[in-house]
User: What shape does this take?
Amino acid sequence: MSVGVCAPSGFLASATSCGLKRSGSPDLALVVSESDCTAAGVFTQSLVRAAPVLLDEKTLEENASSIKAVLANAGIANACTGEEGARAAAEMQRQTARVLGCLPEQVLVLSTGVIGVQLDLARIADGLKALYPDLSSEGGEPTARAIMTTDTRPKYRSIQVNSGEGSFTLGAMAKGSGMIHPNMATMLAVITTDAAVPAPILQLLLKQAVDLSFNRISVDGDTSTNDTVLLLANAASGVRIESEASISAFSKALTKLTVELAKDIVRDGEGASRLVELQVKGCRSEADAQKIASTIATSMLVKTAIAGGDPNWGRIVAAAGRAGVSFDPDLAILCIASVQVPELELFSDGKPRSFDRQQAAQIFSADELFITLDLQQGEKSARMWTCDLTTEYVHINADYHT
Amino acid sequence: MSVGVCAPSGFLASATSCGLKRSGSPDLALVVSESDCTAAGVFTQSLVRAAPVLLDEKTLEENASSIKAVLANAGIANACTGEEGARAAAEMQRQTARVLGCLPEQVLVLSTGVIGVQLDLARIADGLKALYPDLSSEGGEPTARAIMTTDTRPKYRSIQVNSGEGSFTLGAMAKGSGMIHPNMATMLAVITTDAAVPAPILQLLLKQAVDLSFNRISVDGDTSTNDTVLLLANAASGVRIESEASISAFSKALTKLTVELAKDIVRDGEGASRLVELQVKGCRSEADAQKIASTIATSMLVKTAIAGGDPNWGRIVAAAGRAGVSFDPDLAILCIASVQVPELELFSDGKPRSFDRQQAAQIFSADELFITLDLQQGEKSARMWTCDLTTEYVHINADYHT
Assistant: This one.
């Protein structure tokens, strides 16, 4: 089955174990396009940036219109590794180019895993030899599996779009379970499409989609040295994304795909048992709405309340109050809902409402729940996804040893 | 023994159970000065402010030079309680004034506990009747106990100062265990002194001391609707704090006292097993240093690494990198130490140092450890205290039901 990154035409992929993960699980993945791709990338905002992040940024600046492949490893992040790390990332590029018979600057590289450990390039070279003959359109699932670190399941999706100009496909794989994990750095995603999209448009649309998806999720509030989202477009469908209508259709599909993957990541958050969709609305600006949403989504007290299945609404209001955004608490309205239970108003007019506590507890115990805070100060809003904070999160992150 | 708030001359205190805590533990505390006090207060920066916070601010604005008493209850925070809550806080003031035979505006009130629940004023009135005849200089320990919520032990300290102008005493009690707890809002502190300090100077010195102590601790990054620090000066020692030397001596003692209490709070942090002193230095501004220190001190990954006794330095560097402060990671130097083990350098020149891993693990398993990050960008620094994040924190906060 051609799933994930192999769902669009003309993409092949394969995965292998080259010994970077101590467990011996697959840890090296290669995604190759049969023809040259335009490409775009969005990278971590952290000041401490891993070697592959720096290299990919440079590669995309100089050569965003003829990318051929992405080589990704898990187990070692190649972050905080100094000049030796920079040389290793470049060597990953060269080794891949040699195997594929292309130029090094046609290859993007991704790493995720332990911070501060140097890559073993001989293992990667051996791995590449195994990956090349194995390339196939069946590689979508195994590559999604090979980039996992503390993820409990591979994450891949695809979407087919029938636009006025013909049909094209978007496919993707992602990993990430803590925003950073036990030195298991990172959220990574590789998105492929068989549409033809000029590189500058691709970059613009990717940035927009990431802002509404991967930038709107929080497992633990920590961001990584390695966070990277790459998008490769190989034009194999023959559909050109240039008209306003086609750009809109592509953008919509890309956002939908990335939002679904982002939610997959939160659902698989370290130790998470519930997915929470949080909407903050009625704000004076989108920045205000995002600031409040982010403070609530990362509040340990809100997240533990959700873990406990307890509609402890005071913690949500208190988190909003400390977000650094000015609003009148007496105007705020807090509602919760789940798929099964309709919306309940918990707080308004500056005081608690008399709601059905059993229904509230039922909502807070659902697999997926919705929290809406309306500040009634304006028209702007922001949406975020978060998960609960369980003892399992602490176990995963405290019991991991470097 | 005259300890805590009763250590300075002329302060009496008592505590009782009036039924606000479901457990039946003591939950009402009264601190009274034999003569009028100048007073100062520092309050939560949250927009969502509890009724007693609003009332005390107003009281201190209008009447900072003749405060007589502080009435504090635990069990119910009187936050998010609307107009009924405002009336209840004022009624606490009036009831106390009636019992003591003073004016309502001579009384400050504190509440901590569940958010969004109205106070039972009849219980407080009954409690006050029991508190009044019980007032004594032995009340320092019982009052510190009565304001506890999830605290596992009462926190009180005192310090005697021999200045050129004579000797005076500072005493204090504090509570707080999560920054906010399970709706058990809050960090509270009441500080007393028998020095004579004009109210404007008192306010200035309190603000300075709080900035270096209670504002530098983090248990879970959440701040509360009720956070309050009050300082009452009754002049009973006859020592006047007006000369530059006496102000300096008073300020130094006040800062020492509040830092020690702040550390007591972190040590007793919900589920905490280790106290971490974090210093970020070599910054261009103190604000930069504080921003980075705060990001590290609240990082769930750093805090779980410390819980696991694991010297997972990559998480500390990664947290600094996402703090939003510009610095060159290649110049940063990260060191750790404990009381038993001398300083170890973990990271510098953009790469890991080869340190003794056993010694590093020993430091990260100590009751009290020191983390120093030197950015080498300037001369400014900031100090913070934090604790580890354990499964016990999640238990305490997830298993509490509203």
